Predict the 3D structure of the following.
Amino acid sequence: MKHSYSKEIKISIAAITCLILLYVGIEFLKGVNIFKPGNYYTVRYENVTGLTISAPVTINGFKVGLVREITYDNESKNGSIIVELNLDKNIKLPEGTIALLATDLLGTASIQLQLNTDENVNYYPVGTELPSKNAMGLMGEIDSKVMPAINNILPKIDTLLANLNKITGSQSLINSLNKIEPIVANLESTTASLNKMMSNQVPATLNNLSEISVNINTITADLTHVSNTLKQLPIDSTIHSLNNTLNDVNHLTQQLNGTDSSIGLLLNDTGLYYNINNTIKDLDSIMIDLRHNPKKYVNFKLF
């Protein structure tokens, strides 16, 4: 038996199917996987600038979930905003965990879970409202760190500018500036003199250096010629002859120092020296006596 379905039932089934697919597609585009179970927690913030649905939820930089929904609490007096977090099923949050809302340089916000690392603590049940905290942004850090330093520097800058005004208005500085003008004029005159000297004397000096270089080259050539001439001389035979001459001189010196030769005996025999000395003394005595008594030695007879 065949069952026939009316067109209305077919259209209803198709519409329901399209709605289901649309819902799944929208949730997928949001980053929500409806087929994967998760744990839901809520967080309350006073300001959620930059935070959007599907913004990442991280622990130490690792993504563990996303922002499921952002709603405004109409019943709160201060206008707080409730953020629903969809976390991984295996993530457990110990009591004391803080949901930190941080904003990067581009203005994109994310939620960073700062876990309580103390031991022996219980875990938050699913659906708990977590403690929240807004991280200080770039401008906040500038305001808290840079501005106090700038405020400390400003009085010093003011004092520095006052001292500069005092110095620039000093009569001594004005007098010094007036003295600089003659100095600059003298420098210009000196520069002109140097330029003139460079244009007149330096070329002549360079010419002299060129002539000196030519003379040096000539001297070098002459020395080369002398060196070649010395190389051609019979130096070996000359040195050999010189060695023979030195040997002869050494031999003659040995004979003069020895007592084997007549010259050596004359030079080294002290007895000969004393005999000659005595002989000279005797001759001297004879000459003295001859001068005083000449008749004793010479007789003259006259016929």
The mean pLDDT is 79. The chain has six helices and eight strands. Residues 2 and 62 are 57 Å apart (CA to CA). The longest helix spans residues 171-232.
